[in-house]
Design brief:
This protein folds into 2 domains: 12-90; 115-333, BirA Bifunctional Protein, domain 2 (2-Layer Sandwich). Helices cover 41% and strands 20% of the residues. It has helices at 12-27, 32-43, 48-54, 61-97, 115-129, 143-146, 178-188, 227-241, 285-290, 307-315, 328-333; strands at residues 133-135, 140-141, 172-173, 192-201, 212-222, 249-256, 259-269, 273-283, 299-306. The chain has a 7-stranded mixed beta sheet, sandwiched between helices. Strands 2-3 form a two-stranded antiparallel ribbon. Strand 7 (259-269) and strand 8 (273-283) form a beta hairpin. Helix 1 (12-27) packs parallel to helix 4 (61-97) and helix 5 (115-129) crosses helix 10. The protein is rod-shaped. It starts with 11 loop residues before the first helix and ends with a helix. It binds phenylalanine.
Length: 336
């Protein structure tokens, strides 16, 4: 009997015909968007293939197999075309972006340690290897530590040597790291072998003076310490810091209230001129007494120098103020 509600069975030829048409349409898409639209019209919610798959139940075995095969084939064709179009889109983008992998990259701006930090590290390393322990102290000092305990009482004319910044409450901006000597001896007693580091302040400013600069202070007190130990350590230190095999020193008598005898140490620079490097001397008995140390049992030396100045010499700079300008071009040009 002829049955009306049974769909007419599509033949293998019908399938093939549809497939060829579809193949053609897929191939003719030019953009991913076009392909997407076509895909939706076939496999979307209201797509032609979606509709036909719903009739699966009404088909005989052959037609079912054909439909399944067509379904798989079409999906494959879409995938292939998608890959082709994606590739084409990428090539087009690359063509107009023109990436030149042979161009030199932008120079990298690397940070470096500030020359003062670098030199402090070197100085510390050397002094620590000699057995000196590193100490610091406050930059706002009281009169006792900055002057009086250093054998420089209020009436002492040597106070004039240092252009001091006084604070309203009678404290001062530390003028010398020698204050660290006093603090350390008060705190730890003797024997003591330390170096104090830090910023110091004086009212002066030109190419070789800055109102804020840095000092390093050595202090070595024990039972048998002599001037020879002082000069030996200073010589060894300078040789290592400036990387020189030999070094010519000149010892000149000088005056500091807190050392006796007091000396100044000069160094022959590049075989030509004498440069004043540091002040030093045997610690004055009054200073020891002020720290409750018996000068008949203990004695030793102290030395002090400008750490900025040593760095200027080492790095061949002629204006101390450059250190504090924070000009990166200068740092770069100076080769740090
Ligand atoms: N404090 C002295 C100065 O600032 C340097 C110094 C330190 C001299 C230790 C002798 C001993 O000039």
């Amino acid at each position: 009997m002829f049955c009306h509600n049974k769909a007419v069975m599509p033949t293998a030829f019908d399938f093939l015909l549809r497939e060829i048409k579809m193949q053609e349409q897929i191939k003719n898409t030019n953009t991913l968007q076009e392909l997407q639209n076509l895909y939706t019209s076939v496999f979307g919610k209201n797509g032609t293939m979606t509709a036909r798959l719903k009739t699966m139940r009404d088909l005989d075995n052959n037609a079912r197999a054909e439909l399944n095969r067509e379904n798989t084939t079409l999906r494959e064709l879409f995938k292939t075309r998608q890959a082709e179009l994606e590739n084409a889109a990428m090539m087009a983008e690359m063509a107009h972006e023109k990436l030149d992998a042979t161009l030199n990259p932008e120079p990298e701006n690397r940070g470096t340690l500030h020359p003062l930090t670098q030199s402090l590290r070197e100085i510390s390393e050397i002094l620590e290897s000699f057995g000196y322990e590193r100490r610091t102290g406050p930059e706002i000092e009281d009169d006792w530590h900055n002057f009086t305990a250093l054998n420089t009482p209020a009436y002492h004319p040597a106070r004039d040597m240092q252009d001091t910044f006084f604070l309203a409450n009678g404290n001062v901006m530390r003028t010398q790291t020698s204050a660290i000597q006093i603090r350390t001896m008060e705190e730890t007693g003797v024997p003591v072998k330390i170096f104090g580091i830090g910023a110091t302040y004086r009212k002066e400013m030109d190419a070789t003076h800055s109102p804020m600069f840095h000092q390093i202070e050595g202090l070595y007190i024990d039972k048998n310490i002599t001037m020879t130990d002082l000069i030996g350590d200073v010589r060894a230190f300078l040789k290592r810091f400036f990387n020189m095999n030999d070094i010519e020193l000149r010892i000149r008598p000088s005056y500091f209230p807190f050392t006796d005898p007091s000396i100044e140490i000069d160094m022959k620079w590049r075989g030509q001129k004498w440069l004043e490097i540091m002040g030093a001397g045997m610690v004055h008995p009054n200073v020891l007494r002020n720290c409750n140390i018996d000068p008949d049992v203990y004695q030793g030396f102290a030395f002090g120098f400008g750490w900025d100045r040593l760095a200027m010499l080492k790095y061949n700079l002629d204006d101390i103020r450059e250190f504090y300008n924070s000009d990166v071009r200068w740092l770069r040009d100076a080769g740090f």
